[in-house]
Recover the amino acids of this structure.
């Protein structure tokens, strides 16, 4: 009969431990007694080893408890037990069990040796943990990592990854083929040594900004190749976040853009050449108009009006055409109001009437840009990124107004009003309202939209991401347009 004396009953600490282990569902307790050579184990520890819990309660020998350990794992387990009993190492060992008819289970055995006064091991007690789920996760991660590396090594791009702090710890095969660097030399901050000295400071600024803000990384830089030459690449990276939204890792690529940049430079050169020829054509037309008017005094007034219109288009083209930094002109304040004042000045007066000078408006104040066209509201700065689509839109509106609308009769007027508002996504946008009054009655929308109107609408909506809506009111055309403020400025190179 087992003793029921206070010394034989489990202590409160042992009872609390047993309850905790039972509640965990993944851990079981065991205790080896050197005097009897038997191992006592609770039900959970027995289940993990495929052993009858009744045997564990009575006490089992080591071979009985470990009978279902996978044979390949048994030698290492025996060595770990011997080392723990000899005091050479703590017992903390993982192995697999596979009972007949059951599944393979990963077990983590942890224990502590108790010794007598002579230093001999008297007990070895500990816990057995079910770590199968963790091992499955490790296996899945290893498989996922192997798939990632296999895919990354087949890509024509250079692929890399970093820890959350930006420490580079992986580069694919393509990186080493292109750069010629030996494995390991690129890790940490070593990659920056092959960035062109002129691009290095900007590259680091962009990378540090992304690390601090968590924003995607994008930069263009030149890298030194294995043969010592330099080539342009586009570097990009995105963060991977954990369940709490913290950045856990960065994955990035380097894409060769040398040919793309070369093609862009060639297109830019061709665009400059074409623009220069167009500018010369305007000058020739203006000269021919002046020469023709000298021989026909009766056409002087008409020629002056025509020269004004051609001159306005030439000035608009001069602002909208591509420029280098050295050739970029300064055409007054780069604001919508000043731009439109130049563009619309030929339409300012009815035929035979002198044009009126207009003051430079303050932002938010009404501007009497001409005696027939009133521009008011909130002015905006902009650059040549938006000049062409805006010139197309307002030149088409003014031309149609001069042919069929308010500007086709002496008493017609146009109100052009600008205001700012928040767009559907919260972005700031400009609302433009073009309202014609005093012109011929409008029976309704035209039966067919002209090519110029379609081109102007497509330019605004396609190039600027805006929206154009026309309302054919009996008193004249009313047009509303919405333009994203960000689209009015050229995107800066990263």
């Amino acid at each position: 009969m087992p003793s029921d004396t206070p010394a034989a009953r489990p202590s409160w600490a042992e009872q609390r431990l047993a309850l905790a282990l039972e509640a965990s569902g993944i851990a079981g307790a065991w205790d080896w007694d050197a005097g009897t050579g038997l191992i006592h184990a609770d039900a959970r520890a027995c289940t993990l080893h495929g052993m009858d819990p009744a045997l564990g309660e009575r006490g089992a020998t080591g071979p009985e408890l470990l009978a279902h350990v996978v044979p390949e794992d048994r030698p290492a387990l025996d060595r770990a037990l011997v080392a723990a009993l000899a005091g050479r190492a703590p017992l903390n060992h993982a192995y697999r069990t596979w009972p007949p008819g059951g599944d393979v289970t990963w077990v983590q055995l942890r224990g502590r040796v108790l010794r007598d006064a002579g230093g001999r091991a008297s007990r070895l007690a500990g816990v057995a943990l079910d770590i199968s789920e963790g091992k499955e996760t490790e296996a899945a991660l290893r498989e996922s990592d192997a798939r990632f590396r296999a895919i990354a090594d087949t890509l024509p791009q250079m692929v890399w990854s970093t820890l959350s702090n930006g420490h580079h710890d992986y580069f694919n095969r393509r990186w080493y083929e292109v750069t010629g660097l030996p494995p390991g030399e690129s890790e940490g901050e070593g990659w920056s040594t092959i960035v062109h000295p002129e691009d290095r400071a900007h590259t680091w600024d962009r990378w540090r900004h992304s690390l601090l803000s968590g924003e995607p990384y994008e930069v263009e830089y030149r890298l030194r190749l294995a043969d010592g030459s330099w080539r342009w690449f586009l570097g990009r990276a995105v963060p991977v976040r954990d369940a709490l939204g913290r950045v856990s890792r960065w994955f990035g690529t380097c894409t060769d853009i040398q040919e793309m940049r070369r093609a862009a430079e060639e297109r830019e050169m061709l665009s400059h050449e074409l623009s220069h020829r167009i500018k010369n054509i305007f000058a020739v037309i203006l000269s021919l108009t002046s020469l023709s008017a000298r021989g026909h005094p009766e056409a002087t007034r008409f020629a002056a009006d025509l020269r004004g219109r051609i001159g306005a288009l030439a000035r608009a083209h001069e602002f909208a055409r591509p420029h280098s930094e050295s050739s970029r002109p300064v055409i007054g304040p780069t604001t919508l109001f000043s731009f439109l004042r130049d563009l619309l000045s030929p339409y300012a007066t009815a035929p035979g009437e002198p044009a009126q000078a207009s003051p430079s408006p303050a932002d938010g104040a009404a501007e009497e840009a001409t005696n027939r066209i009133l521009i008011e509201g909130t002015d905006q700065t902009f650059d040549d990124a938006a000049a062409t689509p805006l010139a197309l839109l307002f030149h088409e509106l003014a031309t149609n107004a001069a042919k069929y609308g308010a500007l086709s009769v002496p008493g017609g007027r146009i109100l052009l009003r600008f205001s700012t508002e928040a767009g559907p996504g919260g972005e700031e946008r400009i609302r433009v309202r073009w309202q014609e009054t005093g012109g011929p009655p409008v029976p309704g929308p035209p039966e067919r939209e002209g090519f110029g109107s379609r081109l102007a609408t497509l330019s605004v909506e396609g190039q600027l991401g805006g929206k154009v809506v026309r309302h054919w009111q009996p008193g004249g055309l009313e047009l509303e347009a919405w333009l994203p403020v960000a689209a009015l400025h050229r995107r800066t190179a990263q």
In short: The chain is about 40% helix and 25% strand. Residues 258-294 form the longest helix (37 residues). The radius of gyration is 41 Å. Residues 1-10, 19-25, 354-370 have pLDDT under 50 and may be disordered.
